[in-house]
Amino acid sequence: MTLIEAVAARHSVRKYRDKPIPEDVLAVLTAKIKEVNEAGDLHVQLVTEEPKAYSGLITYGSFSGVRNYFVMAGKKADDLDERIGYYGEQLVLLAQTLGLNTCWTGVSYSKVPGTYELEDDEKIGCYIALGYGETQGAGHKVKSPRDISNASDLTPKWFNRGVDAALLAPTAVNQQKFFIEYKGLKDSKVARVAAKPVFSMIGYSKMDLGIVKYHFELGAGKENFEWE
What is the dihedral of CA 104, 110, 116, 121, to 10 degrees? Predict the structure, then answer.
């Protein structure tokens, strides 16, 4: 499975089987964690075979069987949430290509002492549940391209493909509070694209934006544009 195929195949899963993740798969995930931590200036950590973080909670989504998860953390900063979204979705889609299932988790978890490390200037943005799902999850109704972008018959095909991929990005309670705009060419050479969050009563719009931007890049091709 390619990453763009994973974009279409991946759905949020909240119920997991009691099946350990093999060591070779964990090794691939661990290597990717090192990569995203360096590239995104983050402190992502993988916790395995730990059942307490998602147990005993009556919360959104009714999680069960979660024993593995990513702790998405980094230094406190205005752009931390966006970076967590952008680099966290890289882990999510990689996991999908490895036959695993995932679910972004904003509030439906408990922080278990001793399972992670934080420096004084760091904080946890969210968790991502990980494992072998009881099912592969299900898709949800999404907005149209024109609801979240200025995509049209006049915008480049690569831009429209990016918007289609962005529409498949997971967002908090499927809110899809973002807007992507084709801005035209810069110096008649490089196309510019702008992406911004839209106000949300629920929150998490900056983290959602990071996820959306990664999806857009996969669909559009990073070589075709630059972010404004």
Answer: 80
Q: At what angle do helices 23-40 and 80-97 cross, to 10 degrees?
A: 150
Q: Give the model's pLDDT for residue 59.
A: 52
CA dist., res. 174 & res. 112, Å (int): 27
**Token pair 């070779």 in the structure block, residue:** 24
Q: Which of 71, 73, 83, 128 is nearest to 103 (CA)?
A: 128
Whole-number average pLDDT of the chain:
95
Tell me how far apart the alpha carbons of residues 211 and 85 are, in angstroms, rounded to a whole number: 5
CATH number, residue 220: 3.40.109.30
Please state whether the predicted TM-score (pTM) of the whole model is above 0.85. Answer: yes
- Find the range with the poorest average confidence among 50-54, 104-108, 112-116, 120-124: 104-108
Question: How many structural domains does the chain have?
Answer: 2
Domain-located, residue 177: yes
Q: 92 and 161 in one domain?
A: no
CA dist 64 to 22, 88, 109, 151, 174, Å?
Answer: 20, 22, 11, 39, 21
Q: Which sign does the torsion angle of CA 177, 197, 54, 128 carry?
A: positive
